[in-house]
Design a protein that fits this description.
By secondary structure, the chain is α/β, with parallel strands linked by helices. 30% of the residues lie in helices and 22% in strands. It catalyses: L-asparagine + H2O = L-aspartate + NH4(+).
């Protein structure tokens, strides 16, 4: 008998219509009631939270990471239901703080629980099926695909196929509708993405977007507000305006780590252009490969929390080990 835990945290998959808009109203047990689990799998529903994911704080996500780690110790696999707005960020944090031994997969829905044609039951059935399959590590199961937690992105606001890992592709497909029975077709295995244990709190790391004419104000204000690290959501393959490059250089000299990711949505960053990415690379910025700025932020936050003496070094070693950079 395979024992799985279903950790419900809220999100669209658990919402019903109200006069003020969609609100979380379905419990873990309600969600479990929409799928067929079969005789060989025991699924225990657990209400871990009941919020829309855009309302979660960094402390909330850190607490969820600790809950997932504790739950993994007691079950053969864990399925987390989650809102799609910040699912890619939570997926990254869970992967960065996973012990590597237990299957953990995150799913959700684009349509609410009370929709006439909800996608939640199909996604949940596939997630339970994938968790029971037993592949270690953290993944995202959505619209029939199993995607790596590291590198996953939300690519559409409303389409049912809302997630992709553009430079990595799906790890597997999981068919069969709202049932744990069905086929698993595995294509690849994601590397272990663990960086450290779930921290009690995560330090502030701010994302600074690049746009035509951007000055250094946002970087300076972020550090003044308490940010211990900066992620630059850069142009193209890793470029920034001259003012931002100069500010980033000063911060790096002050031992404030700076990570460079791309605002484009796919592709890796490199230090290629004089006055832009090449200067950032020479100054010591960490280039985050194909990670989104939002996942790069969690990477730096976990590195700061778990390796405070050398967070940039820890992040670089992790990136090399996982193939990110």
């Amino acid at each position: 008998m395979t024992r799985l835990a279903l950790l419900a945290t809220g999100g669209t998959i658990a919402t019903r219509a109200t006069s003020e808009g969609r609100a979380v109203a379905a419990t873990a047990r309600d969600l479990l009631g929409t799928v067929t689990t079969g005789p060989d799998v025991d699924v225990v529903p657990i209400d871990a939270a009941g919020r829309l994911s855009f309302a979660a704080t960094l402390d909330d996500v850190a607490a969820l990471a600790r809950t997932v780690r504790e739950t993994c110790a007691a079950y053969d696999g864990v399925v987390v239901t989650h809102g799609t707005d910040t699912l890619e960020e939570t997926a990254a944090l869970l992967a960065l703080t996973h012990d590597g031994a237990t299957p953990v997969t995150i799913t959700g829905a684009q349509r609410p629980f009370d929709d006439a044609a909800p996608d939640g039951p199909t996604n949940l059935g596939a997630a339970l099926r994938w968790a029971a399959y037993g592949r270690p590590g953290v993944t995202v199961t959505f619209a029939g695909q199993v995607l790596p937690a590291i590198g996953v992105r939300k690519i559409h606001t409303s389409a049912l196929s809302a997630f992709a890992a553009p430079d990595r592709g799906p790890l597997a497909s999981a068919d069969g509708g709202g049932s744990i029975d069905g086929a698993i077709r595995e294509h690849a295995v994601a590397p272990d993405a663990s960086l450290g244990d779930p921290p009690a709190t995560l330090p502030r790391v701010d994302v600074v977007a690049q746009y035509v004419g951007a000055d250094a104000h946002a970087l300076d204000a972020a550090v003044a507000a308490g940010a211990r690290g900066i992620v630059v959501a850069a142009f193209g393959a890793g470029n920034a305006t001259p003012a931002v490059v100069e500010s980033a250089r000063r911060l790096l000299e002050q031992h404030v780590p700076v990570v460079v990711a791309s605002r484009t949505g796919a592709g890796a960053v490199e230090g290629l252009y004089a006055g832009g990415g090449a200067d950032l690379a020479r100054a010591g910025a960490l280039f985050a490969g194909d990670l989104s700025p939002w996942q790069a932020r969690l990477l730096l936050a976990v590195a700061l929390a778990t390796a405070p003496d050398d967070p940039a070094g820890a992040a670089r070693a992790w990136a090399a080990r996982t193939g990110v950079a």
